[in-house]
Amino acid sequence: xxxxxxxxxxxxxxxxxxxxxxxxxxxxxxxxxxxxxxxxxxxxxxxxxxxxxxxxxxxxxxxxxxxxxxxxxxxxxxxxxxxxxxxxxxxxxxxxxxxxxxxxxxxxxxxxxxxxxxxxxxxxxxxxxxxxxxxxxxxxxxxxxxxxxxxxxxxxxxxxxxxxxxxxxxxxxxxxxxxxxxxxxxxxxxxxxxxxxxxxxxxxxxxxxxxxxxxxxxxxxxxxxxxxxxxxxxxxxxxxxxxxxxxxxxxxxxxxxxxxxxxxxxxxxxxxxxxxxxxxxxxxxxxxxxxxxxxxxxxxxxxxxxxxxxxxxxxxxxxxxxxxxxxx
Length: 328
Hints:
Elements: H1 3-7, E1 34-35, E2 40-41, E3 45-46, H2 66-80, H3 88-98, E4 117-131, E5 135-148, E6 153-167, E7 170-178, H4 193-200, E8 204-205, H5 208-215, H6 221-232, E9 237-241, E10 264-270, E11 273-274, H7 283-293, E12 298-300, E13 312-313, E14 322-325
Parallel strand pairs: 8-9, 12-13
Antiparallel strand pairs: 1-2, 3-6, 4-5, 5-6, 6-7, 9-10, 10-11, 10-14, 12-14
Helix pairs in contact: 2-3, 4-6
């Protein structure tokens, strides 16, 4: 199994408990997720009450700004790995302060800190969400397993928007701008055919944050159709975000991102390989070529395929993912 397969843990429905697992802030989601041959993003329940802590996230040597990404990953690991406590926010404050982070960050993560429950987390991938000389946003895709006392374990994969600023030669976490949304309250509305296909396609690996966006009807048909077209061309795609977990504005700019309009998707891996470090003969490059041919109006990636002024562009921010979007 590749490192991608090791990064995301497949959890299957094994048995039911005498009590239902929690379902939102004080409760855990239990909606199904999608799977691929190498990785899985899923929310499920199991009777398991203990598990070994996940190993710390390790960054590949070809990543850009490694300390920035690792700082965001370590914050998520220290914040979401905890033992049962009647005061989970207080315990989290002590825990992250001991790890070198500001305890005032904790209230922003309150929905993920569940009383009288144990939690462990696997960081799947930390992707750039915004990058300026002294400020950054890292979207951390993280799989959290929460085990309430006397009940079932629940697993949810979220995309968290972690904000950082330069501190000397390194980086310091300054905020948690999003914990990746929540399952739609109203699930009575039937999803479109395109949405149903996206949710059912195993070659599209979606964190729960992204699945909820699709289920809520937030994503434009052009984006859904593009993903299905890329899959039909033989690609498998691991999504970071649509709307939830992505900065609302284009980072460092005063205008709203196409992500916030449901008109963009970020993809961190193509055909089982990270976009970061991809070469022009790989699947990510072919996916960029096809997205351009299919009419995407914003195609950020490690490559500029059509020169200045065209839809395709590259910069350091897009060195680790594909940003595929359609202007309104």
